[in-house]
Amino acid sequence: MKKVMKWALLSVALSYAPIAYADTADGDAVNAMGWDEIVEMARGSEVNWFLWGGADNINQYVSDYIGGILKDQYDITLNRVGVSDTVEVVNIVLGEREAGVNDNGSVDMIWINGENFRTMMQGDMVYCGYTDILPNNELVNWDNPAIANDFGVPVEGCEVPWSRAQFAFAYDSARTENPPKSIGELIDWVKENPGQFTYPAPPDFNGAVFVRHVFYYAAGGADQLLGPFDQAKFDEVAAKTWKILNDMEPYLWREGQTYPTSINAMQQLFANQEVALYFNYEPSQFGIAVQDGTFPESVRSYGLTDGTIGNTNYTLIPYNSPNKAAALVLQNVLLSGEAQYEKARPDVWGTSPAIEVDRTSPEIQAEFASIVQPESVVSSEELGKAALPELQASWISAIEQGWLENVGR
């Protein structure tokens, strides 16, 4: 039996239906306030932010930098709650809704996107209609479809962008001279270099994204899959995808008898030189790993000639958050030019901003212009030349479940 992570299932099935917004009296009251009133309401309170906790540098940025601003400027205490998978938080809110906890939930904000956002919207579990209240909302380009739509689902005032990311590969230039530069080349390279490649088992986020790249390749391009889920098209492309991945399996690390259970586990395999290639949806992690000595200085990263998948990630306030005012202040701080620059610094996080930098002050624009990425990190401009869109969530869930049934077994 292959050792793969068990799929985390929601406790109820939610069909794809028209979106309904959850409007509570508390939310309506906050939406009717001016910004200064909201800030005063938030003073002295706490805000519970649930987010993926797998990267120490991100945790430190959130707890120390963002938490420090909230405490020093607004007397708000930030409680960072780290989770291994966002679906855990979605299930918390879902359980509270089923139990009738509609006013005093345990979650004030979630780092979220994609299928989890769609699930929250379909479950009527989202606080909406407030984004125009945030002073720093003017820095967001809502005319950009990649911002206004989260994996094909219109945002419509129900979440706030935080960062942008795009998938990239990494290799050690001292060990590997010519890494594969496309999915087609990678398939051949894996067979020519047995044991030197693997990928985390879906539903690990990065592992699932790698599988989607192969799915795009089997489909003849991402444009063949855009739009609502098509069962006939899925069946056709999935059969090709599972064959590619199953044919590749005997040439993987440990002959494909086991898969890493997380991207952190795959990172360790690369650091130990057990595999020759690594990847991550957040390329800044390559630089962080070089900086802290996990990877050698000879590591380099790159995109694929046939493109890599990119997305925008967001923060969302559940409908039953008891601290909506504090959550709004937190979101506004995250959108500020200062906070967006801080997390763009390679020695902090190195992620791409969700705001339009040219809308910030001249001082902040100069700070962004001064950023020099490490040699190990491929530039967002280079990656952006061949960026691929994410699919609607229904495609993604079907691909992940299909992998478990036909490849992971």
From TrEMBL:
Residues 1-22 form the signal peptide. InterPro entries: SBP, YnjB. The keyword Signal applies. Pfam families: SBP_bac_8. The keyword Cytoplasm does not apply. Keywords: Periplasm, Signal. It comes from the Bacteria. This is ABC transporter substrate-binding protein.
